Amino acid sequence: MNDITLEKVSKSYLVPVRSGKPFKDLVKREYQKIDAVRNISMEIAHGEAVGLIGPNGAGKSTTLKMLTGILVPDSGKITVFGKDPFAQRKRNCSNIGVLFGQKSQLWWDLPAKDTFVLLKKIYKIPDQIFEKNMEKYTDVLDVSRYIDQPVRQLSLGQRTRLELMASLLHNPGILFLDEPTLGLDVAVKRQIRELLQMLKGETTIILTSHDMKDIDIVCERLVVIDKGSIVIDDAIDRVKKTYGNMEKIEIKLKEADREAVRFLPPEVHAQIEENTIICNYDVNRIHSADILQCVLQHCSVMDVSIMSADIDDIIEKIYEGSH
Ligand SMILES: Nc1ncnc2c1ncn2[C@@H]1O[C@H](COP(=O)(O)OP(=O)(O)OP(=O)(O)O)[C@@H](O)[C@H]1O
Ligand SMILES: [Mg+2]
């Protein structure tokens, strides 16, 4: 049996529209329907690590909120461990771990350790498992220095590691992570990725992130959502092969030249921002040296930097293909 199934699930929000006439808004408010999730279906087996990506407002958090029983879908069917996560919220909570990047489950004025003891009672975690997990995650996440300090005194990175620890103490079968690495430095990101890698296989992981590296390191399966619909659901390796390896080169010119992109070959997706040309391209189709040479023939270059394309570039390429 799959850990998670979604069958033709949709969810919309009603948001008030301002008419510009305050009295009219007070008497009869108009609403606009926002289709956040449209008719999505997928199945996730136990132990899978799935990366859920998509641009801002695509419907990722809404999907996670439905899977964790916070929101109820308008139509369609969701099961988590064979049960409806909303109707059986209490039961669902004891089987899952949740980390929403912008929300805290730790008691703000207390040290995290006190919240952990509270969670032990709530989840009825046996002493032995609790002690073992406390020791394991304190070590892996390197939080021994912060665990006794009130949470409000901690930095984002320190707090996020403790939040992650809180979501794992009851050995959840599924871990839902909504942008867990948002705003974190490279070292903390690495620590979190290493922990998720360690959990892989035993725990089902559903991860959303705008940092493609998180997804690349932790997940084998990629689900891309755009405007509430799934546009891709496939193995990451296959997606990479299909859409090629994207790179980005930024060429800073001595003087702004809006015509500079005219000299570039058609394989290059280029744009100009002030005096910098930003080129996205598939390394299987063109080399950075060829692009640079083209620009050097016509313009004076001040600086060059090459990086792997960020998630938006990959998504852009995926959309180009899907259209
Ligand atoms: N509580 C809400 N009330 C009204 N509209 C909402 C609410 N939450 C989300 N939306 C809308 O639903 C759509 C999907 O939002 P959602 O938060 O699921 O996107 P997301 O993919 O998580 O985006 P991001 O990458 O920015 O976190 C957006 O258009 C958003 O404005
Ligand atoms: Mg979100």
Q: Main β-sheet: number of strands, strand sense, barrel status?
A: 6 strands, mixed
What proportion strand? 25-35%
**Which residues sit in consecutive blocks of at least 5 with pLDDT less than 50?**
none
Oligomeric category: single chain
- Average of pLDDT: 90
CATH class annotation of the largest domain: Alpha Beta
Number of helical elements: 11
- The helix/strand class is alpha/beta
- The strand line-up of the biggest sheet is 5-6-7-3-8-9
Q: Give the terminus-to-terminus CA distance.
A: 34 Å
Give the number of DSSP strands: 13
Q: What is the overall silhouette?
A: globular
C-alpha-based Rg, rounded? 23 Å
Superfamily (CATH H level) name of the largest domain: P-loop containing nucleotide triphosphate hydrolases
Cofactors, ions, other ligands:
adenosine-5'-triphosphate, magnesium ion
In the CATH scheme, what's the topology name of the largest domain?
Rossmann fold
CATH architecture of the largest domain: 3-Layer(aba) Sandwich
Helices and strands, in order, run as EHEEHEHEHHHEHEHEEHEEEHEH
Classify the helix fraction into a percent range: 25-40%
Overall tally of domains: 2
Question: Can you give a write-up of this model?
Answer:
With 323 residues, the protein is an alpha/beta fold. 34% of the residues lie in helices and 30% in strands. The protein has eleven helices and 13 strands. The strands form three sheets. It has a six-stranded mixed β-sheet with strand order 5-6-7-3-8-9, with helices on both faces. Strands 11-12-10-13 form a four-stranded antiparallel β-sheet, covered by helices on one side. Strand 11 and strand 12 form a beta hairpin. Magnesium ion binds next to helix 2. Adenosine-5'-triphosphate (ATP) binds next to strand 1, strand 2 and helix 2.
